[in-house]
């Protein structure tokens, strides 16, 4: 099979397309012929050796795929050969074929395309877990989403709206904010042009946002701590800006607020039943036509370096997908 291989840590341009041998599956695994592979921000870090989870070169990057089941281990009951599925893998997704642990292979709902499915579990799974279990978002509350046109950001806008929140989307260009409005944002803030803190203050009549979803970190996170409501919850999602923010905890004290960590990868391993319930709800919304995953661009497998470069240069909106 063909695959994109990281032979040495480095920039996306150091990745190579190669012929790689398939491996046999174990009784608890499933083989999937990959029709689409999702690009995720952590992929840009893992190839540089900068992600919290390390992989030793040579390895195939890529954490999520969609495709057709071609082989099923004897212990796996819930899927069969020919099923259309999405799968999460630690690495290995940028390839014509993956072998995944059976318990992270999910059957697709009717009508979901391979491209949509390859960009679904990680970002929607993260945002659902973040807003429901970690943020305890309630109908009528105000949700502020940073990086709101990105992968996790846009899914948080959609889910927040479906949970009944008033959603304020914050991003760096009018085009990105227009996309957020299309997907349900009630209000928008262009933080490349105006102060996030002042804009939130104005939109919430000085109250601040009840829940803040932050996949960006850096200086914007500091503004978030000034924009949080009484009893607010600041959700630590990620650090796309490259800077992990530090918080002076007196700012939480003054608002009776909490900073809450979100780690979806650990959540699905530790709480698989709750995670399955989250996906049931997400797929139900999809089937009811209430939520449409946004795939902004598809690339051939060989163009994985270009797709990763586009993500690093903040050109991506919604999901970028590789098509082997
Ligand atoms: N906690 C978890 O379980 C979990 C799960 C999945 C992902 N994550 C994390 O969430 C973050 C976002 O992931 P994603 O896949 O949504 O990425 P993405 O699609 O690239 O979105 C990230 C957004 O961050 C903003 N940004 C600000 N500064 C940036 C910079 N220097 N470089 C790139 N983007 C920048 C961009 O929006 P603007 O241009 O509008 O500012 C961009 O749309 C990553 O840090 C990832 O590791 C965490």
Automatic annotation (TrEMBL):
<dbReference type="InterPro" id="IPR013149">
    <property type="entry name" value="ADH-like_C"/>
</dbReference>
<dbReference type="Pfam" id="PF08240">
    <property type="entry name" value="ADH_N"/>
</dbReference>
<dbReference type="GO" id="GO:0016491">
    <property type="term" value="F:oxidoreductase activity"/>
</dbReference>
<protein>
    <submittedName>
        <fullName>NADPH:quinone oxidoreductase</fullName>
    </submittedName>
</protein>
<dbReference type="Pfam" id="PF00107">
    <property type="entry name" value="ADH_zinc_N"/>
</dbReference>
<dbReference type="InterPro" id="IPR011032">
    <property type="entry name" value="GroES-like_sf"/>
</dbReference>
<dbReference type="InterPro" id="IPR051397">
    <property type="entry name" value="Zn-ADH-like_protein"/>
</dbReference>
<dbReference type="InterPro" id="IPR020843">
    <property type="entry name" value="ER"/>
</dbReference>
<dbReference type="InterPro" id="IPR002364">
    <property type="entry name" value="Quin_OxRdtase/zeta-crystal_CS"/>
</dbReference>
<dbReference type="InterPro" id="IPR036291">
    <property type="entry name" value="NAD(P)-bd_dom_sf"/>
</dbReference>
<dbReference type="InterPro" id="IPR013154">
    <property type="entry name" value="ADH-like_N"/>
</dbReference>
<feature type="domain" description="Enoyl reductase (ER)">
    <location>
        <begin position="10"/>
        <end position="322"/>
    </location>
</feature>
<dbReference type="GO" id="GO:0008270">
    <property type="term" value="F:zinc ion binding"/>
</dbReference>
């Amino acid at each position: 099979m063909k695959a994109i291989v990281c032979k040495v840590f480095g920039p996306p341009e150091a990745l190579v397309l190669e012929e790689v041998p398939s491996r046999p599956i174990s009784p608890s695994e499933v083989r999937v012929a990959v029709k689409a592979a999702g690009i995720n921000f952590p992929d840009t870090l893992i190839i540089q050796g900068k992600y919290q989870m390390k992989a030793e070169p040579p390895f195939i990057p890529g954490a999520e795929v969609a495709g057709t089941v071609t082989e099923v281990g004897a212990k796996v009951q819930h899927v069969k050969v020919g099923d259309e599925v999405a799968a999460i893998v630690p690495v290995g997704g940028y390839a014509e074929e993956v072998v995944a642990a059976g318990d992270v292979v999910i059957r697709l709902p009717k009508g979901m395309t391979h491209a949509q499915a390859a960009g679904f579990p990680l970002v929607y799974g993260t945002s659902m877990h973040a807003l429901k279990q970690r943020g305890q978002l309630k109908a009528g509350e105000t949700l502020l989403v940073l990086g709101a046109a990105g992968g996790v950001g846009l899914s948080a806008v959609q889910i927040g709206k479906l949970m009944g929140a008033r959603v304020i989307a914050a991003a760096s260009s009018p085009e990105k904010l227009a996309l957020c409005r299309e997907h349900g944002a009630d209000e928008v803030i262009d933080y490349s042009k105006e102060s996030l803190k002042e804009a939130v203050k104005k939109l919430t009549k000085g109250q601040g946002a009840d829940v803040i979803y932050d996949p960006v970190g850096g200086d914007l996170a500091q503004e978030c701590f000034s924009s949080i409501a009484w009893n607010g919850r600041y959700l630590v999602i990620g650090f796309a800006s490259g800077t992990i923010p530090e918080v002076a905890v007196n700012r939480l004290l003054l608002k009776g607020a909490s900073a809450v960590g979100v780690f979806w990868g650990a959540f699905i391993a530790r709480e698989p039943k709750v995670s399955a319930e989250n996906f049931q709800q997400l797929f139900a919304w999809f089937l009811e036509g209430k939520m449409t995953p946004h795939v902004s661009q598809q690339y051939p497998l060989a163009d994985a370096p270009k797709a990763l470069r586009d993500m690093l240069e903040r050109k991506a909106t919604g999901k970028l997908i590789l098509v082997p």
